[in-house]
């Protein structure tokens, strides 16, 4: 497989990605593209799953080295599950985000992975947290990440409104992902979206040909 | 006068021409990337079909430009319901799959359960991630268990992906082309076998590191059918493997007998104890 490697900063398979999460009225939408690449040239998977469920109402999106991200999420899932059993109640979204933050911060020299955590809990309702590469943890209403996010900062800043309806938010997220996938070479495939509310979790998958098209496509 | 077409006989001693040529080449690239030596490898493929999983591999093992093994076994046994194709460093794939197989046997004996494919994948992922890419094993793990038919890929850095079809190794791009074109969900057994065979064949034809025969392994709920070889290379050599010549092959022209004069210098007798 060495012919696939170039001077990429991430060794092995990178998720070189677009991920986003946004809060709407009553819930949160979290989504990503589905492309995994090696060396910025070879698409090693067109259908990789980057939106991972870490608990009943908490999902994480991963960016960076696929191996590192998968390993961290595996460990976080196990910690979170144990924490939940000890507390005898479903975990808070901040707990999941903090676990990821601890892992990313304590191992920052060895890891190359960043995460978005989104979910619903009984204490604070819908929340979105960002855990960046070095282990910073912040809470935001709407957030984007990955290499493709640079192309949609303008769109997100202009089009996001707090307290949107579920349909408006889904459309906003789909548009944002489609725009990023259209410009970033290492993002692509299908758009995976997950809508989390108090009542439950809904997966929405938008295949490449059903994505919204914009004026020059 | 020396003609330009006359071959020059090499001088005595070691020849360092290539070293000076390499240094000159490096100068040409001005600090950029020099061409790297070619590394050859393998073609392995896997497909999930209606009743199970089909895995395929070529049988060539290379050591630089020399074919070291023409009948190498690249589809490794993991458990009675799981097999694993390995590409990359041959020693790494051998040992990793061996270790996995042993661990799963112990698990089976301890728990009384048949191992699941996800378990094997998790064990592989943990181990390869721990070694941060130092173990050069690109694996395609396929198997059938109580939850269904599964095909997973594990990379050397520990990334895992669950897929319905896949090719790996140096011949992967050629094989993937055939797979992308021919794959459909719920293929029949013969169609799946033919698809895997033709994808590995494409890898063999387009890649120098892949060649010789094609092995196919079919895993279903009923059992495993390991067909080795499924397709033999068209370029087989007809070696007799016998190097004994019958007497009379070489004609005796003259015979001369010279008796040797020997002197007895020392004689010792040692009794052998047969008890």
Report on this structure.
- The complex is a heterodimer of chains A (217) and B (275).
- Chain A contains four helices and 13 strands.
- The longest helix of chain A is centred in the middle third of the chain and has 22 residues, at 66-87.
- In chain A, helix 1 crosses helix 2 (93-106).
- In chain A, a hairpin with a 3-residue loop joins strand 8 and strand 9 (125-131).
- By secondary structure, chain A is an alpha+beta fold.
- Helix content of chain A is 28%, strand content 32%.
- By secondary structure, chain B is an alpha+beta fold.
- Chain B has one domain: Aminohydrolase, N-terminal nucleophile (Ntn) domain (Glutamine Phosphoribosylpyrophosphate, subunit 1, domain 1), CATH 3.60.20.10.
- Chain B contains five helices and twelve strands.
- At the A-B interface, helix 1 of A face helix 3 of B.
Short descriptors:
heterodimer, A: 217 residues, alpha+beta, Glutamine Phosphoribosylpyrophosphate, subunit 1, domain 1, 5-stranded antiparallel sheet, 4 helices, 32% strand, globular, disordered N terminus, B: 275 residues, 12 strands, extended
Number of domains of chain A: 1
Q: Provide the CATH topology of chain A.
A: Glutamine Phosphoribosylpyrophosphate, subunit 1, domain 1
Number of domains of chain B: 1
Rg calculated over all Cα atoms of chain B = 28 Å
Classified by CATH, the class of chain B is Alpha Beta
CATH architecture grouping of chain A? 4-Layer Sandwich
Low-confidence stretches of chain A: 1-7
Oligomerization: heterodimer
For the secondary structure, the number of strands of chain B is: 12
Principal-axis shape of chain A = globular
The average pLDDT of chain A is 91
């Amino acid at each position: 497989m060495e012919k696939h490697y170039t001077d990429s900063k991430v060794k092995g398979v990178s998720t070189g990605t677009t991920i986003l999460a946004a809060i709407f009225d009553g819930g949160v939408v979290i989504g990503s593209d589905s492309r995994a690449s090696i060396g910025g040239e070879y698409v090693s998977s067109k259908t990789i799953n980057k939106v991972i469920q870490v608990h009943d109402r908490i999902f994480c999106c991963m960016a960076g080295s696929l191996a590192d991200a998968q390993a961290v999420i595996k460990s976080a899932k196990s910690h979170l599950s144990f924490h939940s059993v000890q507390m005898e109640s479903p975990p808070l979204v901040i707990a999941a985000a903090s676990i990821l933050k601890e892992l990313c911060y304590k191992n920052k020299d060895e890891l190359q992975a960043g995460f978005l955590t989104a979910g619903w809990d009984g204490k604070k309702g819908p929340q979105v947290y960002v855990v960046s590469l070095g282990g910073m943890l912040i809470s935001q209403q709407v957030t984007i990440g990955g290499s493709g996010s640079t192309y949609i900062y303008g769109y997100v800043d202009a089009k996001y409104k707090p307290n949107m309806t579920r349909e408006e938010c889904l459309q906003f997220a789909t548009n944002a992902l489609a725009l990023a996938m259209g410009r970033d070479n290492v993002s692509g495939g299908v758009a995976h979206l997950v809508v989390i509310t108090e009542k439950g979790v809904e997966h929405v998958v938008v295949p490449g040909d059903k994505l919204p098209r914009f004026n020059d496509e | 006068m020396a003609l330009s077409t006359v071959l020059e006989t090499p001088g005595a001693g070691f020849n360092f021409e290539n070293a000076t040529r390499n240094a000159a080449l490096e100068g040409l690239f001005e600090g950029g990337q020099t061409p790297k030596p070619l590394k050859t490898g393998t073609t392995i493929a896997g497909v999930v079909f209606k009743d199970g999983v089909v895995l395929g591999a070529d049988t060539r093992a290379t050591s630089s430009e020399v074919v070291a093994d023409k009948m190498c076994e690249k589809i490794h046994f993991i458990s009675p319901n799981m097999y694993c194709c390995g590409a990359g460093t041959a020693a790494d794939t051998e040992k990793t799959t061996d270790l996995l197989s042993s661990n799963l046997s112990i698990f089976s004996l301890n728990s009384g359960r048949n191992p699941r494919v996800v378990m094997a994948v998790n064990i592989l992922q943990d181990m390869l991630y721990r070694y941060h890419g130092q173990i050069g094993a690109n694996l395609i793990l396929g198997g059938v268990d109580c939850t269904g038919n599964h095909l997973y890929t594990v990379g050397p850095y520990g990334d895992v992906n669950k897929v319905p079809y896949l090719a790996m190794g140096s011949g992967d791009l050629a094989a993937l082309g055939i797979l992308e074109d021919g794959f459909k969900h719920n293929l029949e057994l013969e169609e799946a076998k033919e698809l895997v065979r033709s994808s590995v064949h494409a890898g063999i034809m387009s890649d120098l590191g892949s060649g010789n025969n094609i092995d196919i392994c079919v895993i279903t709920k009923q059992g495993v059918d390991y067909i080795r070889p499924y397709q033999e290379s068209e370029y087989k050599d007809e070696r007799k493997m016998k190097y004994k010549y019958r007497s009379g092959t070489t004609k005796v022209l003259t015979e001369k007998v010279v008796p040797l004069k020997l002197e007895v210098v020392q004689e010792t007798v040692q009794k052998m104890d047969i008890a």
